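Whiteboard transcription, Tuesday session. T.W. wrote the C-alpha cells on the left side:
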C-alpha cells in the first residue's frame, strides 16, 4: 500500500525535524542568502559548497554588495566550484533585482523565475522556503525518493512531471518550505543513490521499491552519452623577466570570462612539430618562435567533456604580434585573476 497524504507529509516532516543537517541557510528567511545557497549547491556537494557560501556571504552580505562588485572579483571568489555560468548569471540577476525591484528580492514564483539563470526548481525553492508560497520542488533527490516510494518507472521529462504531480498532491501548504526541504533531505541522507538505509526507513512498510525488491532499479537509469574529447595546447610566454601572458576566454564556451594562457585547441592530440605549423602559432609568435619544453598531459573531466591539456614553453617570441587583449602580468599577479581548476592544477604542479 502506498503512503497516504497524511502519512507521507507528516512522517517526512517528523523525520526532517529530527534528522535535518544544521546548515547556515536554514537559519534565515533572507531570500538572497537562500538563493545563494541554491545556486552554489547546483552540481556541488554540501561539504564543498559550505565554504563558498560563507565566503560569499562574508564578502557580499547584501544584494547591493554583489551587484556593485566587478565580475572579475565574483569569478575569482567562485574559482574552484566550476560551472562558472552560475556565477555570471547570479551577478547579472542581482543587477536585475537592483534595477527592476529597487534592490528588494521578488516574492512570487512568477517574478523570481524571470531572474537570469533561475529555473523552475530554484524559483520554487526560494518562493517556498523564503516566503512560504505553496510551490513544489523537483530535483534529483525528490525524483529518486518518489520513484522508489510510488514505483515510478519513467525517465526524463515524464519522471519529472509525475514527480511534480505527486509533490503537489502531497504538499503541506502550511509548511511548504519545510516539506520541500524534507523530501530533498530524505533523498540526500536516507534514500541515497547507493546503499540507502531501507531497514531503518520510516516508509519501509509502504515503499513500493522496498516491497518489490526494486530499490537498486529505481529510478530507472538513462543512457548517458560519452563525454566529448577536447585537446588543449597552452603556451607559456615570458616577454619580460618574471612576467607571463594571460588571455581572457570570451567565447560562449566553458570558463567564459576566466583567464588562461594563450591556447590552441586541436581535434586530436598535438605535438610540438604540429603546433609550430599552426597558423595561429605563427601569427601570434612569429616564424622564429620555438618550443623549449612541454609538460605532462593533464586530464580534466567535466560533466559532458574530457579535456586533455599540455603546456608548452615558447621561446624567441615577437611580442609585437600578440593579439589585442592579451595581458602581460607579473608572476605574483596571477593569483588576482580567476582561472579554471585545470589551470590551478598546472600551477600547483
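and on the right, the sequence the group agreed on:
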Amino acid at each position: 500500500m502506498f503512503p497516504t497524504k497524511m502519512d507521507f507529509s507528516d512522517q517526512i516532516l517528523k523525520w526532517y525535524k529530527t534528522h535535518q543537517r544544521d546548515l547556515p541557510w536554514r537559519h534565515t528567511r533572507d531570500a538572497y542568502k537562500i538563493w545563494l545557497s541554491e545556486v552554489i549547491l547546483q552540481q556541488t556537494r554540501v561539504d564543498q559548497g559550505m565554504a563558498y557560501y560563507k565566503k560569499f556571504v562574508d564578502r557580499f552580505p547584501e544584494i547591493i554588495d554583489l551587484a556593485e562588485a566587478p565580475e572579475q572579483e565574483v569569478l575569482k571568489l567562485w574559482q574552484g566550484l566550476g560551472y562558472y555560468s552560475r556565477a555570471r548569471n547570479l551577478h547579472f540577476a542581482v543587477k536585475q533585482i537592483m534595477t527592476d525591484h529597487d534592490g528588494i528580492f521578488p516574492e512570487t514564483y512568477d517574478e523570481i523565475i524571470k531572474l537570469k539563470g533561475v529555473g523552475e526548481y530554484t524559483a520554487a525553492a526560494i518562493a517556498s522556503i523564503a516566503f512560504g508560497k505553496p510551490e513544489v520542488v523537483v530535483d534529483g533527490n525528490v525524483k529518486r525518493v518518489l520513484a522508489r516510494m510510488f514505483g515510478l518507472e519513467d525517465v526524463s521529462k515524464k519522471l519529472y512531471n509525475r514527480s511534480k504531480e505527486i509533490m503537489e498532491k502531497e504538499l503541506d501548504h502550511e509548511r511548504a518550505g519545510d516539506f520541500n526541504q524534507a523530501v530533498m533531505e530524505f533523498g540526500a541522507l536516507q534514500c541515497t543513490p547507493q546503499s540507502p538505509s531501507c531497514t531503518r526507513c520510516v516508509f519501509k512498510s509502504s515503499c513500493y521499491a522496498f516491497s518489490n525488491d526494486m530499490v537498486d532499479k529505481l529510478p530507472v537509469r538513462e543512457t548517458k552519452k560519452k563525454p566529448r574529447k577536447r585537446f588543449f595546447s597552452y603556451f607559456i610566454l615570458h616577454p619580460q623577466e618574471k612576467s607571463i601572458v594571460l588571455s581572457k576566454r570570451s567565447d560562449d564556451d566553458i570558463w567564459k570570462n576566466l583567464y588562461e594562457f594563450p591556447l590552441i585547441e586541436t581535434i586530436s592530440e598535438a605535438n610540438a612539430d604540429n603546433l609550430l605549423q599552426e597558423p595561429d602559432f605563427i601569427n601570434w609568435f612569429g616564424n622564429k618562435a620555438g618550443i623549449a619544453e612541454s609538460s605532462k598531459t593533464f586530464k580534466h573531466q567535466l560533466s559532458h567533456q574530457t579535456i586533455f591539456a599540455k603546456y608548452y614553453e615558447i621561446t624567441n617570441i615577437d611580442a609585437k604580434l600578440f593579439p589585442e587583449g592579451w595581458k602581460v602580468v607579473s608572476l605574483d599577479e596571477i593569483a588576482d585573476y580567476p582561472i579554471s581548476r585545470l589551470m590551478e592544477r598546472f600551477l600547483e604542479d
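Someone added at the bottom: The chain has 15 helices and eight strands.
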